[in-house]
């Protein structure tokens, strides 16, 4: 009797996660699958579950897999899954919430420090033989205000780090409850006005797309630092580019972009004031295992009619 199939939208999954899925045939979509690849594999194998690492899963893929019961995200953000289409078809969507919180929070901190201390720029100058001690001034973060948008597992982990640096931590999240005493909840108007640095830690929705735009950036302090390890669609990229050029934004540390992978002609390339990484905030050896285990357990919980973990 043929085993039921689980489709992985990637070329691999952590061995610890695969050990949980031995009752199923595992199909891999490859390193860089397209939506069409996902649809074709769904049509060919009719999976009961999809574990989403890369690419998008839309209604066409769901219709191509009549046995599909659950779509499990290998991570916390589910914006690459058409949740309305899934709901209308009775397909559950689950996410590995918190599994990569430490990794992404550390990346946000690294980008914040790199922006404040000009680490990449000074490294390049040093390798070119320059010694800029007499002319360079970096920014001290202690006693400055960091504004966090999104106070879930990642945002709160980052907040703890910022507090340890001696920063004042303010945050906006209408869904957050029982915040630690070192996080002051504020409205967005206050966050724009008071923040010396802003770090994004919220999911992308239709309501907050381009949340950081020309209008909101103009409300910020001149010389604000912007960090984004969440979703690129939260930022109006041309507006951010203009704000960096004008000095309204001192520097931007970005790990996510509106279109990924970034294209070679992206306007952020070769621009002073931008520190870029290829959406690898959650890509650590530990997070790889944690996200794989959570994604596998969540898929199995639905298939076995248990509560997702």
Sheet/helix structural class: alpha/beta
Rg, Å, rounded: 21 Å
What global shape is seen?
elongated
Poorly predicted ranges (pLDDT <50, ≥5 residues)?
none
Question: What do these coordinates show?
Answer:
Helix 5 (101-117) crosses helix 7 (153-164). The protein is 34% helix and 17% strand. It has helices at residues 15-18, 35-45, 59-63, 83-88, 101-117, 119-127, 153-164, 188-194, 214-218, 237-246, 285-303; strands spanning 5-8, 25-28, 49-52, 70-73, 92-95, 145-149, 168-172, 183-185, 197-200, 224-228, 249-254, 274-276. Strand 3 (49-52), helix 3 (59-63) and strand 4 (70-73) form a beta-alpha-beta unit. It has a seven-stranded parallel β-sheet, with helices on both faces. A five-stranded parallel β-sheet has the order 2-1-3-4-5, with helices on both faces. The chain has eleven helices and twelve strands. With 309 residues, it is an alpha/beta fold.
